[in-house]
């Protein structure tokens, strides 16, 4: 995909989007609703024509071709199963259009029904299937043509949370089995993180960052990506000084929101006076009732009061109000058995600390 | 007896009374008249006679019956062919209420007036001929009226709203994403319509077909006003039998034929609907025993 743009009136649904998706990849387009991900998917499928740019599949521009001539198939958000046909005929639909022999139709449909674990449901009409079963039929139907690319438009969003998880794992297994490219559109970051090989994060028609789930989570390219993926503590900051530290650079940042300076390591050298965005993920913070015994140079330490503890079984999330008034989020895993309830409670005085290596400079605002 | 079943009778009462007075009684009278002897100046004599039915078996009547069927089938087919794209366009349009209004507007004018308007359009010195002459497409007036073509044209015009409305309602509730899905799976624009749209709006197609065919089959004013000598339809014969020949038993017998044809049509429509329901219920039962 190169320089793809699409406008509706003055609204830019896609703004100069360029993405390269590798063969056989599980690729996710992730972004909030209205970010252009669905428009992009529809452009690949052929239901929408970009104003500018090219979409290439195996080196050939597919934009001039109608949907039926493209080697891509779609799994629709609303399933779009044909209500007048039973499960068998729904899946066989593409083969019937190609007028394939009855015996070969039977074999192939049986094979794909087995792939999506729906053998034995051949004669049911879509109206009698559960949401998860409908989605499986839609997947089998889209795969039976053996497309080069399978497009999935928020395929799990209509299902309940438990089912979504198990279907997601199944989808990943299907991907591993048949090995074709999957392009998966979702607004759910946890879905995208858990199954994708790579993710493109989109907002307002632009691709903000493309990378592996790990890269996107740990090294977000912009404030938006940092905020959209997972939870984070994000502050604007100014570089005070920057010195070499082991193989990287250790910067000292003035963070007004924290009312103090912090230290963070980063690959790049930053000029003093540079404005940046600084982030540290809540699970990387340590929360303790007592100050740490030794305070080394690369530990950032703050004291505060627990404003809101949220206990959720395997972990607790604390909103800690620092002395300067800023609230910082901390997530603590409960790795050991808690005999007498949590050690940290509401209104407790606590110490929050993190290592300079665990912070991250998201965005250099000016240089 | 349970209270609820008595309530049912109370609710159905007025409707039942209405149907008895205005539908069953006239039907009964028609059946009765058809097996009585014809009176000299109209009316009937109260003696049993199968004369009316014997008169039905004659080549002249068979010819009119056959013509009525041909005209009705042709006019219905043309109406449907025009109404389908209309209904589709209306369902997909963002100005639905405007188009619905346009379809309904003709009903505000008396149907006779509308037929006379067509006479003004089609007659030898009418709008159509004058326009074609002005454009130098023709020299001499064409005979556009008082023939089978005029009857079919005006019938199509008169009954197309009856076809558009049910088609519009079914197409409107159709999920157009199914057409995208069909295209995505390899169907051309045309195949996606025939393989996905048409089967899913089957009930609408049958309803609008029946709603168009039945009134056309009994049409009387249109063939009378814009038809020629060879356009007589069953409806015209019935009127002649009542007003001119004064053979009321025969008129009743012919009416019963129209009723029969209409009943077959409606039964077909209901059965198609019931079959769809049965299929659904059957598959549901199968799902239950799994």
Structure description:
The complex is a heterodimer of chains A (367) and B (290). Chain A has helices at residues 37-45, 87-97, 102-115, 131-143, 161-178, 189-195, 213-218, 223-228; strands at 2-8, 11-17, 26-30, 52-54, 56-57, 60-61, 72-75, 149-153, 181-186, 198-203, 206-211, 233-245, 248-255, 260-266, 275-280, 286-288, 299-311, 315-322, 327-333, 349-355, 360-366. Chain A is of the alpha+beta class. In chain A, strands 7-8-9-3-10-11 form a 6-stranded mixed β-sheet, with helices on both faces. Chain A has a 5-stranded antiparallel β-sheet with strand order 14-13-12-15-21. In chain A, strand 1 (2-8) and strand 2 (11-17) form a beta hairpin. Chain B has a single domain, classed as MetI-like fold, CATH 1.10.3720.10. In chain B, a hairpin with a 5-residue loop joins strand 1 (36-38) and strand 2 (44-48). The model of chain B has no long low-confidence stretch (mean pLDDT 87). The interface between A and B is medium-sized, with 30 and 26 residues.
Briefly summarize what is shown.
Chain A is an alpha+beta fold and 367 residues long.
Give the key terms.
heterodimer, A: 367 residues, alpha+beta, 6-stranded mixed beta sheet, 5-stranded antiparallel beta sheet, 8 helices, 21 strands, 23% helix, 36% strand, elongated, B: 290 residues, mainly alpha, MetI-like fold, two-stranded antiparallel sheet, 2 strands
Beta-strand content bin of chain B: under 5%
Mean pLDDT of chain B: 87
> What is the approximate shape of chain A?
elongated
Structural class of chain A: alpha+beta
With strands numbered from the N-terminus, the spatial order across the biggest sheet of chain A is 7-8-9-3-10-11
Q: What radius of gyration of chain A results from the CA coordinates?
A: 25 Å
Distance between the termini of chain B: 38 Å
CATH topology of chain B: MetI-like fold
CATH homolog superfamily of chain B: MetI-like
Q: Give the domain tally of chain B.
A: 1
Instruction: Please identify the top-level CATH class of chain B.
Output: Mainly Alpha
Spatial shape of chain B: globular
Helical amount among residues of chain B, as a percent range? over 70%
How much of the sequence lies in strands of chain A comes to 35-45%
The H/E string of chain A reads EEEHEEEEHHHEHEHEEHHEEEEEEEEEE
The portion of residues assigned to helices of chain A is 10-25%
Largest sheet of chain B: 2 strands, antiparallel
**Average pLDDT level of chain A:** 88
């Amino acid at each position: 995909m190169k320089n793809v743009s699409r406008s509706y009136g003055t609204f830019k649904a896609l703004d100069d989007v360029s993405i390269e998706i590798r063969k056989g990849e599980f690729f996710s387009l992730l972004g909030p609703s209205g970010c252009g991900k669905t428009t992009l998917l529809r452009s690949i499928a052929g239901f929408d024509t970009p104003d500018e740019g090219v979409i290439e599949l195996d080196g050939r521009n597919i934009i001039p071709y109608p949907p039926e001539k493209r080697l891509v198939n779609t799994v629709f958000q609303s399933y779009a199963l044909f209500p007048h046909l039973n499960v068998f005929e729904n899946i066989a639909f593409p083969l019937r259009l190609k007028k394939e022999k009855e015996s070969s139709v039977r074999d192939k449909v049986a094979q794909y029904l087995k792939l999506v674990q729906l053998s034995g449901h051949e004669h049911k009409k879509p109206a009698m299937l559960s949401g998860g079963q409908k989605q499986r039929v839609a997947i089998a139907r889209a795969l039976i043509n053996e497309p080069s690319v399978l497009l999935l438009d928020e395929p799990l969003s209509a299902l309940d949370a438990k089912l979504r998880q198990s279907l997601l794992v199944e989808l990943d297994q299907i991907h591993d089995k048949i090995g074709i490219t999957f392009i998966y559109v979702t607004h759910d970051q946890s879905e995208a993180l858990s199954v994708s090989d790579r993710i493109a994060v989109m907002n307002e028609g632009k691709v903000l960052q493309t990378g592996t789930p790990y890269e996107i989570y740990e090294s977000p390219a912009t404030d938006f990506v940092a905020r959209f993926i997972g939870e984070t503590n994000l502050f604007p900051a100014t570089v005070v000084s920057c010195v070499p530290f082991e193989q990287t650079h250790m910067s000292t940042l003035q963070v007004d929101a924290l009312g103090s300076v912090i230290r963070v390591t980063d690959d790049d050298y930053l000029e003093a006076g540079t404005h940046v965005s600084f982030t540290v993920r809540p699970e990387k913070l340590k929360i303790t009732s007592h100050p740490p015994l030794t305070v080394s140079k690369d530990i950032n330490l703050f004291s505060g009061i627990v404003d809101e503890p949220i206990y959720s079984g395997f972990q607790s999330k604390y909103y800690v109000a620092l002395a300067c008034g800023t609230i910082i989020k901390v997530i603590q895993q409960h790795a050991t058995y808690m005999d007498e309830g949590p050690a940290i409670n509401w209104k407790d005085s606590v110490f929050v600390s993190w290592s300079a290596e665990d912070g991250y400079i998201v965005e250099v605002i000016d240089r | 007896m349970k209270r609820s079943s008595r309530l049912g009778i109370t609710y159905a009462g007025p409707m039942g009374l209405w149907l008895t007075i205005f539908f069953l009684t006239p039907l009964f009278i028609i059946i009765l008249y058809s097996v009585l002897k014809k009176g000299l100046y109209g009316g009937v004599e109260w003696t049993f006679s199968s004369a009316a039915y014997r008169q039905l078996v004659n080549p002249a009547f068979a010819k009119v019956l056959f013509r009525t069927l041909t005209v009705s089938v042709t006019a219905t087919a043309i109406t449907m062919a025009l109404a389908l794209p209309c209904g589709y366009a209306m369902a997909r349009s963002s100005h639905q209420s405007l188009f619905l209004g346009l379809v309904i507007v003709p009903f505000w004018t008396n149907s006779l007036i509308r037929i006379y308007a067509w006479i003004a359009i089609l007659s030898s010195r009418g709008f159509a001929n004058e326009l074609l002459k002005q454009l130098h497409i023709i020299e001499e007036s064409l005979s556009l009226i008082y023939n089978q073509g005029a009857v079919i044209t005006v019938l199509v015009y008169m009954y197309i709203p009856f076809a558009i409305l049910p088609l519009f309602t079914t197409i409107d509730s159709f999920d157009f994403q199914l057409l995208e899905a069909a295209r995505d799976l390899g169907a051309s624009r045309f195949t996606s319509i025939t393989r996905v749209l048409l089967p899913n709006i089957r009930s609408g197609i049958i309803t609008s077909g029946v709603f168009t065919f039945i009134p056309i089959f009994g049409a009387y004013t249109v063939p009378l006003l814009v038809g020629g000598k060879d356009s007589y339809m069953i409806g015209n014969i019935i009127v002649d039998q009542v007003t001119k020949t004064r053979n009321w038993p025969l008129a009743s017998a012919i009416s019963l034929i129209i009723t029969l044809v209409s009943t077959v049509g409606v039964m077909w429509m209901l059965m198609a609907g019931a079959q769809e329901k049965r299929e659904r219920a059957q598959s549901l039962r199968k799902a239950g025993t799994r």
